[in-house]
Amino acid sequence: MALQEKVKINTANGLHARPITQIVSTAAKLSSDIKIIYKDVKADAKSMIALMKLGVRQYEEVTIQVDGEEEAKDFDRMMDILKKMN
Prior knowledge:
Layout: E1 3-8, H1 17-28, E2 33-38, E3 41-44, H2 48-54, E4 61-67, H3 71-85
Antiparallel strand pairs: 1-4, 2-3, 2-4
Helix pairs in contact: 1-3
C-alpha cells in the first residue's frame, strides 16, 4: 500500500530547477516508486523533465506518493527533503 501526504510548496518560485534537482537526486537513490501529484497529474520524482512540466507555483499543494518494499523509509526521506525546501 502506497504512502502519501500533501505538502505545500513555499519556495520563492515554486518547483523550479534548484528544488527539483534536490528532489530528483534524492529520489534516484531510493528503491521505491515515487510520484509527485499536482492537479491530478502524476510525475515521476526521478525525472527532472516530468517535474518541470508540472509547473508547481509557490504556495501550491502537491501530494507525494511512495510505493515499494522500503516505502516507509523512502517516504520519510522524501518528506524531509520537501520540508527542508519550504
